[in-house]
Amino acid sequence: MRAAELLDLNREHVWHPYAPMPGTSRPRLVESAPVHVFARPNPSTVSGS
């Protein structure tokens, strides 16, 4: 799948709750990024990086 096709699918089907409405710019395609998950009640961190 090409990047443009993936971004089109994203725009049509994914809700981005902190993005402006209507969208003022195209979303950026990110290949990878660090991930941190905070579990409760134990405040340990799981890293996906």
Q: What would your notes on this structure say?
A:
There is one protein chain. The chain has 49 residues and is of the alpha+beta class. It has a domain of 25 residues. Helix content is 22%, strand content 12%. A two-stranded antiparallel sheet has the order 1-2. Strand 1 and strand 2 form a beta hairpin. The longest helix is centred in the first third of the chain and has 11 residues.
Q: Mind sketching the topology for me?
A:
Blueprint: H1 3-13, E1 36-38, E2 45-47
Antiparallel strand pairs: 1-2
Sequence stretches where pLDDT stays below 50 over 5 or more residues? none
Residue share in β-strands: 5-15%
Q: How many whole angstroms does the radius of gyration measure?
A: 15 Å
Shape: extended
Coarse structural class: alpha+beta
Helix/strand order: HEE
How would a textbook summarize the main sheet?
A: 2 strands, antiparallel
Distance between the termini: 24 Å
- The share of residues in helices is 10-25%
Averaged pLDDT: 75
Describe, in short, the structure shown.
It is built from 1 helix and 2 strands.
Distinctive features:
two-stranded antiparallel sheet; 12% strand; 49 residues; alpha+beta
